[in-house]
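Contributing new complexes? Match this layout with tryptophan.
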Amino acid sequence: MIDNKKVLFSGMQATGTLTIGNYLGALKNWVALSEEYECFYSVVDLHSITVRQDPAELRKRARALLTLYIAAGLDPKKNCIYYQSHVSGHAELSWILNCFTYMGELNRMTQFKDKSAKHADNINAGLFTYPVLMAADILLYQTDVVPVGIDQMQHLEITRDIAQRFNAIYGDVFTIPEPYIGKVGAKIMSLQDPVKKMSKSDENPNASVYLMDDPDTIMRKFKRAVTDSLATIRYTEEQPGIRNLIDIYSACTGKTPAEVEKEFDGKGYGDFKSAVGEAVVSVLKPVQERFYELEKDKTFIDSIIKENAEKANYFATKTLRKVQKKVGFPEKIR
Ligand code: TRP
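Output block (do not edit by hand):
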């Protein structure tokens, strides 16, 4: 608890360009949570180097992501928006927690299996202990709730196991985090292969709509979206393409899938795709405008980076000191 509010932590990687999946599925919902919780939203750059990155590109993307958090509506005075690499406590706690995590547990992580298959030439130890760093992120702030997608649920489970194991030995050190279950964000699928999640690292540029795509590009991608030959706009498992378009339209307009079915009853796929494209364009427009404005204001963004790193450091250090003492490190002489 901070100021009588429960603590919420989440983070995103600055690898790839954010898609409307990241926005409609996560970022947009984060904004709604900031009144109720004390929120920490990190740009998790330590995680990013588990796969090889171009340094200049990573730096640029990290700043763009941080700016996007704000452009999407997160007030940086109320939400702690910061770079993970600016708070050394993440790496320090991660080391300690490594010593409380078993190889067997990490071996079971499906994301590790997927990523090591994808990056067979660089299966590094960081990729293997990625979930431990994530546990450190969460536990460092005594987090109560973590809004995560289903693909990160296994990492939250291991975080809870590590925290419980540590607490069983040393007493009540860590708050045990819960997944945030509430209005969950829409899970947006690929426009080219609608049984696959829309991904920022998809090789086919038509599969994903990026947050910063211009209106023409957005309209074109929706026109090319893969559907089916049933020629009916129904929200069913048999029509994953149409179902995904309905989800996107619902997320943009606030209408329920049933309302969308009704609205487009008897209409053709062409008309529907255009309507979805237009809805996305109008949702993204204000975010993009604000992004370009913020991007120009270097002094403001820099001040946010500095202030929030200090704030995060303050809370991180509190937990870290406690942990260091528990495991038997000598006190620093000041
Ligand atoms: N691994 C998460 C992802 O790729 C990002 C992340 C890192 C995270 N640390 C976190 C999410 C802590 C929630 C809480 O999506």
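Reviewers usually confirm one structural detail per submission. For this one: The chain has 13 helices and five strands.
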